[in-house]
Amino acid sequence: MAENKQDRYSNPALAVFTGIRDLFRKQIPSGALKPGDLLDGKTVLVDGASSGLGYAIALDCAKRGARVVMACRSGIPEKGEMIKKLSGNPDIHMLPVDFSDIRSIRNLSSLLRNQFPEIDIYICNAGIVPRESRKTLQGIEEMFMVNYFSKFIFVNLLLEKHCFNASGSVDRHPSPADPHLIPDLPRIIFISSESHRNPKAFEWDKFGRYEHYSIGKSMELYGYYKLLLTTFAVELSRRLNPGRTALFSVFSLCPGPVNSNIAREAPKIFHPLLKLVFGIFFKSPAKAAIPAVYLAASPDQEGKIMDYFFLMSRKDADEKATDPLNGQKLWALSEDLMNTLA
User: What is the value of pTM for the model shown?
Assistant: First the structure.
């Protein structure tokens, strides 16, 4: 019987099994992260950087010479001090943010505009898998807010405040035949998931609406919000690069299953089993960070306006995410919701 891809992430147990299976499937790398892929002189913003994958990405970027700005809800300043010590790089900074609160997101964008006005690379990593639905201060469901809608708000604020370093962008098409014509574009990198392929369709009539759910529904919704995020990434690239003019690089990727604390809200009875399974089968945050750092640092990615990676292999995102009509619909609904909450 053919596998129903919509069932792969329908509950936590199947999600873990799918992650393990995908990790051991043969992958053909599309590139390699090299020791010489440095980030000297670059300002790299990483959110959700106080633990897990985000921390590992921030540490690797710091070791490559970047000025690293860690946007976090916790771990200030001790996590930044740890990265300074481990990397030998003193140019590490931490700014507070709670991505469940629109006011905090707006405050972060203002702090960045005042303190770090030329961001070269933004790695959008923060995410949660809650045990059950919760309302934010603005009355929005928390996982929808943190895993998707906060990204829409925050990226648009960064663009509105001209926080990206666009000095290397050029109003022409890059030419692989002439490296001198390949622009050094600002890079926006979204940590997505292969679970974005799981939803059967968009539920536009429920967009932004608060609905109660419990742990059994959380993984299904996690995949749905990753679909929204991946669709947003594709549509963002279209809008930032009209007519495929190279002005911004917008990348998204699935790092594979990561041995992190994202499942910390799972029922405590499952914690010993999850710790065992994660420790044996899932990748360490340092190894899982490699695709994200590759997209941030590799000269192979210069001049590219859009890419999706699974581990280190280039793939097409799900067709629902790449459909321009879906991108336009998502943007319009997100914009309307943002204006309603302004």
Answer: 0.87
In-domain check, residue 26:
no
Structural domain of 307: 38-341
Average pLDDT over residues 13-36: 71
Tell me, what CATH number does 325's domain have? 3.40.50.720
Residue 98 CA to residue 108 CA, distance in Å, equals 9
Joined tokens for residue 3: 């596998």
Q: What is the DSSP letter of 2?
A: -
User: In this structure, is residue 27 part of a structural domain?
Assistant: no
Q: What is the pLDDT of residues 181-233, one digit of tens each?
A: 456 899 999 999 999 999 999 999 999 999 999 988 988 999 999 999 999 99
Q: How many domains does the chain have?
A: 1
How far is residue 330's CA from residue 287's CA, in Å, rounded to a whole number? 33
Q: Which amino acid is at 314?
A: R
Reduced to 3 states (helix: H, G, I; strand: E, B; else coil), residue 83 is helix
Q: How far apart are CA 321 and CA 309, in angstroms?
A: 14
Cα 87 → chain centroid? 23
**Mean pLDDT over the full length of the chain:** 87
Angle made by CA atoms 167, 289, 131, in degrees to the nearest 5: 110
Q: Evaluate whether residue 202 is within a structural domain.
A: yes
The answer to whether the CB of 118 falls within 8 A of the CB of 164 is yes
Contact 236, 159 (CB under 8 A): no
Q: Is residue 17 part of a domain?
A: no
Query: pLDDT digits over 267-283, tens only?
Result: 565 555 555 555 545 67
Strands 306-310 vs 313-314: parallel, antiparallel or unpaired? antiparallel
